[in-house]
UniProtKB/TrEMBL annotation:
Protein name: Parvulin-like PPIase
Species: Hyphococcus aureus
SUPFAM superfamilies assigned to the protein according to its UniProt record, in alphabetical order: FKBP-like, Triger factor/SurA peptide-binding domain-like
Keywords: Chaperone, Isomerase, Periplasm, Rotamase, Signal
Domain PpiC: 193-291
Length: 442
């Protein structure tokens, strides 16, 4: 694989649960002004302690599983989910568990097994977020009435599913140069405009005939945020985008970088505002503009160069012939040659270098080159030298072509993964039992 687009680490837990575990007596997290603990809130929610919640092919999801997941969600949210949002938390907990069962069943069919060591590595990273050991984290979870096994199953699914989707479908994803160039051109045209610090929530519309229901559900999420639930918490629990792992954080985006309908929505919003649900690519997208800043001022260009040199002993003609292979050797993305350039020819990738970092003898041959252009062959110090421009930042602070390619690739693969899961669910037996998961006790 040329590059990885989905992290296996369960950051959505690390950013919420790890922070919560810093608080002493995590089991006593307050959820409202009445001082209710997570256990008390769940008791009021109406989820029975022991029953079958759903059957997923040959796997059973129990109400105990649902309650465990709800506790985990409450703790990872730092107790900031109001009791009136519990019906949605119940439904989301059950939905997450069903999807995890489907994902693990499918990965099992392909003999994709996540080892205990991989799970432990993620647990270690999560514990490190709170400067505690894994054993201490397990104890804190136990104090909150949560078995570490519920967390392990979640991690196992999050590691296995992206690996399966990438392994099966990565060759179907094609990011062509026109897409990258179009995105860059749009960003260059808008570089004089503001930049936006954006977060997102994605709600896939599985059935177009139910779009209005999904829209209303998205409005309910916005209403939760108006009542004080942080955007990041809602994104972690409800968003289908991969950015849910980091609370929906897209980072700083420039005008023209997002799809047109999303781009138009954020331009008019003041910082601290949230859009209404926006239909986009088979989903409703909710965007939050956390901050704005002035456009970057053009500065000194930086280059990413594929550099190669040939020993003078090769002779002029042979050295020139060898160095002409820099472009086809694909140093730029693969970090290594795909063909043998021959004995006595060396290469390296020089990333994000400014002209003042380049040997002054070579600067005149490089400074006016654009992306995709190669310098002439230069003779110096008993060798022949040449450089190919993999990328060039005009000093406007634009992301690299590789970063743009990775983002487009990730988005396309994410959509394929969502459709893959929907197809699996349609072909599976998913029986949700009739007990009322969505109405709290009176």
């Amino acid at each position: 694989m040329r590059f990885s687009v989905i992290s296996s680490v369960a950051y959505f837990i690390a950013t919420g649960l790890a922070a919560a575990l810093l608080t002493p007596a995590a089991a006593q997290i307050q959820t409202n002004s009445e001082g209710l603990t997570s256990d008390q809130v769940i008791e009021r929610s109406g989820v029975p302690p022991s029953a079958v919640a759903a059957v997923v092919n040959d796997a059973v999801v129990t109400t105990f599983d649902v309650r465990q997941r709800m506790k985990l969600m409450l703790i990872s949210a730092g107790g900031q989910i109001p009791p009136e949002a519990m019906p949605q938390i119940q439904a989301q907990a059950l939905r997450d568990l069903i999807e995890e069962r489907l994902k693990l069943q499918e990965t099992g069919k392909w003999d994709l097994v996540v080892g205990e060591d991989e799970v432990q590595n993620d647990l270690s990273l999560m514990a490190a977020q709170s400067n505690i050991t894994v054993d201490q984290m397990v104890d804190e979870l136990g104090n909150a009435g949560i078995s570490v096994n519920t967390l392990k199953e979640q991690i196992r699914s999050q590691i296995a599913w992206p690996q399966l989707v990438q392994g099966r479908y990565r060759d179907r994803v094609r990011v062509n140069e026109d897409e990258i160039e179009t995105t860059l051109e749009r960003m260059r045209e808008d570089v004089s405009k503001e930049q936006f610090l954006v977060s997102e929530i994605c709600i896939p519309v599985d059935n177009p005939s139910q779009a209005q229901e999904y829209y209303q559900g998205s409005l309910q999420l916005i209403e939760q945020m108006r009542r004080g639930v942080p955007f990041a918490v809602v994104a972690q629990q409800f968003s289908a985008c991969t950015t849910a792992a980091v609370g929906g954080d897209l980072g700083w985006v420039r005008a023209g970088e997002l799809d047109e309908e999303l781009d138009n929505a954020i331009r008019t919003l003041p910082p601290g505002s949230v859009t209404n649900p926006i239909p986009s690519d088979g989903a409703f997208i909710i965007l939050a503009v956390r901050d704005k800043r002035a456009a970057a001022i053009a500065g000194e260009p930086t280059f990413t160069l594929a550099y190669a040199s040939a020993d003078e002993s090769l002779g002029n003609a042979a050295a020139h012939a060898a160095l002409e292979n820099i472009e086809t050797a694909e140093v730029c993305f693969s970090r290594g040659l795909r063909i043998d350039m021959g004995k006595g020819v060396g290469f390296s990738l020089l990333e994000n270098v400014t002209l003042d970092k380049i040997d002054e003898r070579f600067r005149p041959f490089i400074e006016d080159l654009e992306r995709g252009e190669q310098s002439t062959v230069i003779e110096a110090d008993g060798a022949y030298h040449s450089a190919y421009v993999c990328d060039k930042d005009e000093g406007l602070g634009l992301p690299s072509r590789a970063a743009i390619e990775n983002r487009i690739y990730s988005r396309q693969l994410e959509r394929i993964g969502q459709q893959y899961l929907r197809d699996i669910e349609r072909d599976s037996m998913v029986d949700i039992r009739s007990y009322n998961l969505t109405q709290p006790n009176g």
